[in-house]
Design a protein that fits this description.
With 261 residues, the chain is of the alpha/beta class. 31% of the residues lie in helices and 23% in strands. The mean pLDDT is 96. Zinc ion binds next to α9. GO terms for molecular function: aminoglycoside 3-N-acetyltransferase activity.
Length: 261
């Protein structure tokens, strides 16, 4: 299957991406099959669609591996890496969960991310939610939807991890930092694929071989708020060998949180 720029623009427009849109994009380049022009054409198409009044945010996560600097490669896909290097894009300074942003509000969207919990209040995800932006999943499902980690923090689910990381500060010196609110496993987010569909909050299309899903952040928060108020375990996975979700379940039990629900 062969995909070109006009396919990308017309199909993405069909699911609501247009002038003034503010979107968080998670993507897999290989999901399309073959794209004429590769990742740069996907990036150009998105920029053209949202225009000078819109915003595009992509994760450029580096996790806790190595020493972070502003030029560290994104570990979450080819499209994010090309996007990060685009001349019109700026990147937040977060040492584990940085984001790259294009658009009118880019400075405001990344502001102070360094000082915040990666997905906490005041993080770029919080900013996009406040702007009633949308989430776009290109060839990936909700297990890659980073916005759900923000929802975990928004509802103060009583499981959080802490990691120590190193980064290069603005003087080029290596510094240490403790990151609170480091996210856990996201495989349990797979149950959201059906949930969001059933709730009617997803628009979908197919571009080449890639399934593209679009949902509004406000709908996602509203949908999950109804579930999480009764079930703090909902977003955790049930794999027997998942020590992260096992730890998270223990933290919920120890918190006594449920007793007051
Ligand atoms: Zn798990």
């Amino acid at each position: 299957m062969k995909v070109n720029k006009s396919d990308l623009i017309s199909k993405l427009n069909e699911v609501g991406i247009s002038k003034n849109s503010t979107i968080i994009v998670h993507s897999s380049l290989s999901s399309f099959g073959y794209v004429e022009g590769g990742a740069p054409i996907v990036v150009d198409s998105l920029k053209e669609l949202v225009g000078s009044e819109g915003n595009i945010l992509m994760p450029t996560f580096t996790y806790s591996k190595g020493v972070f600097n502003q030029g560290s490669s994104s570990l979450v896909g080819k499209i994010t890496e090309v996007f990060r290097k685009d001349k019109d894009v700026i990147r937040s300074k977060h040492p584990t969960h940085s984001v790259a942003v294009f658009g009118k509000d880019q400075k405001r969207l990344v502001r102070n991310h360094f000082y915040k919990e990666p997905f906490g209040i005041g993080s770029p995800w919080w900013n996009v939610w406040k702007m009633e932006g949308s989430i776009v999943l290109i060839g990936v499902d909700n297990t890659k939807n980073s916005f759900i980690h923000f929802v975990e923090r928004l509802f103060e689910l009583p499981y959080k991890r802490t990691v120590n990381v190193m980064y290069k500060d603005s003087f080029g010196k290596i510094a240490k930092r403790t990151i609170n609110g480091y996210p856990g496993d996201s495989l349990g987010f797979n149950k959201l694929n059906n949930l969001f569909e059933e709730q009617g909050i997803v628009k979908s299309t197919k571009i080449g071989n890639s399934n593209v899903l679009v949902m509004n952040t406000v709908d996602v928060v509203e949908c999950l708020s109804k579930i999480l108020v009764n079930d703090l375990y909902y977003l955790l996975c049930d794999r027997a060998d998942c020590y992260r979700c096992e730890n998270a379940k223990n933290m919920i039990r120890e918190s006594g949180y449920n007793e007051y629900a």
